[in-house]
Design brief:
The chain is α/β, with parallel strands linked by helices. It is built from 16 helices and 13 strands. The protein has two domains: 232 residues, Rossmann fold (3-Layer(aba) Sandwich); 104 residues, UDP-galactose 4-epimerase, domain 1 (Alpha-Beta Complex), CATH 3.90.25.10. The two termini are 27 Å apart. Bound molecules: nicotinamide-adenine-dinucleotide. The site of nicotinamide-adenine-dinucleotide has 30 residues, from strand 2, helix 6 and strand 5.
């Protein structure tokens, strides 16, 4: 899946969503800022927004490309109305630059991703995910933006011992990483800007994204890392029993939720889950990956990481269904197939940019048998 195929697939998906005319009119001609637009979710969102704003609008991407081994904006599809600015959400110089483009909407997706990264670097996690967010909120209110959509995390903020399916009114103080604390804090700051300044914010709580656009790496999610190891013929490490579940959500379904969240007035000041609303077991994912990549190596098991206290994740999506007419369209088999297709088509780039420095594996650190597991490629998986 090269650039053209990615654009075609996004357009085909948008066709299936069949957005109302009011939504299409709402986006037409806008200038929209997407922070983190070169990332796994953002790189798909910007293609969709590029199509929606049309030739009279523009999508401004602010991203420091810190999630990749090399600063290569290969995930930013070069469309005429997409403007890429290499910059940092903590920098006033960079923020002034992008706000000169007069955005009327901001999708704030930039983040120091994710749990283990924040355990390893707690100060940077707070600088990016809290201070960076506050700066964005300040610039947005001063610029009078019409919508500020915040990428929160349902995987992060519900804590360790909730009742399933996860509903929006559940609150937990049992957060186990700085990333989780900062994502929760982020929602609270968005709420503050809404109540105090009437900034029209929306808190979207994503669950376990996967799909084209996510480059594997030591701090990345389980699916891209499994596919990467599978394609290299490396045995897949499961940190746990494999019976653990996640509510894996195809990235374009999250994009659908973001686009609708940006439009619907009822969403302002609200928080809601964006997920598929189904559980998938980690061991089933590992088996699917080995089958799809022809990896003959046996799966092996490591201890669960200390902060990984959630044996199951399953979201209720009722609130988003009612509030913004959100409907996930892609089942796990279909999304998985597209993900494999993207890996195969983009393999040279993915291999060059995947960030796996030797000896940095969190899964392995927790497991004890550091040497053997590192040699087999074991590392971080999923929040
Ligand atoms: N992927 C998931 O499963 C998931 C789940 C819940 C919530 N989220 C949230 O959704 C958002 C997007 O997630 P993603 O998977 O696309 O992550 P990602 O890491 O792929 O994308 C984030 C982007 O932000 C950029 N970035 C990081 N620090 C920055 C900085 N200081 N200044 C500018 N850009 C910076 C990175 O280079 C990256 O391209 C994040 O806020 C994340 O916390 C993701």
């Amino acid at each position: 899946m090269g650039y053209k195929e990615r654009v075609d697939w996004v357009e085909e998906y948008l066709g299936r969503v069949n957005l109302d005319k009011e939504v299409l009119d709402y986006y037409q001609g806008r200038s929209i800022l997407v922070t983190g637009g070169a990332g796994a979710i953002g790189s798909n969102l910007i293609i969709a927004l590029s199509k929606l704003v049309g030739k009279d609008g523009k999508v401004v991407v602010l991203d420091n490309l810190s999630a990749l081994k090399e600063k290569d904006p290969f995930n930013v599809t070069p469309l005429p109305n997409i403007m890429f600015v290499l910059g940092d959400v903590r920098s006033d110089v960079d923020l002034k630059r992008v706000f000169k483009e007069d955005p009327t909407m901001v999708f704030h997706l930039a983040a120091f991703f994710a749990n283990q990264n924040s355990v390893d670097y707690p100060e940077i996690s707070a600088e990016v995910d809290v201070i960076g967010l506050i700066k964005l909120l300040e610039y947005s209110r001063l610029a009078g933006v019409e919508k500020f959509i915040y990428a929160s995390s349902g995987c992060a903020i519900y804590g360790s011992y909730p009742k399933l399916p996860l509903k929006e009114d559940f609150i937990s103080m049992h957060l186990t990483t700085p990333y989780q604390v900062n994502k929760m804090t982020g929602e609270m700051y968005c709420n503050f800007y809404h109540h105090h300044y009437e900034l029209p914010i929306v808190n979207c709580r994503f669950f376990n994204s996967y799909g084209p656009g996510e480059v594997p790496g030591q701090y990345r999610n389980v699916i891209p890392n499994f596919i990467y190891w599978g394609m290299k013929g490396i045995a897949l490490p499961i940190t746990g029993t494999g019976e653990e579940t996640r509510d894996f959500t195809y990235v374009m379904d999250l994009v659908q939720g973001l686009v609708k969240a940006g439009y619907h007035r009822e969403a302002v000041g609200e928080n809601f889950n964006l997920a598929r609303g189904k559980e998938v077991k980690i061991k089933d994912v590992a088996e699917m990956v080995n089958r799809a990549t022809g990896n003959p190596e046996p799966i092996y098991f490591l201890w669960r990481r200390r902060w990984d206290t959630k044996p199951r994740l399953l979201a209720s999506i009722e609130k988003a269904e009612k509030l913004i007419k959100y409907t996930p369209l892609v089942d796990f088999d279909g999304g998985f197939e597209k993900n494999i297709e993207w890996f195969k088509d983009s393999w040279d780039k993915i291999e060059a940019l995947a960030d796996f420095p030797p000896g940095m594996s969190s899964a392995v650190r927790g497991a004890g048998s550091i040497r053997g597991a590192v040699e087999r490629g074991a590392t971080e998986f999923k929040d």
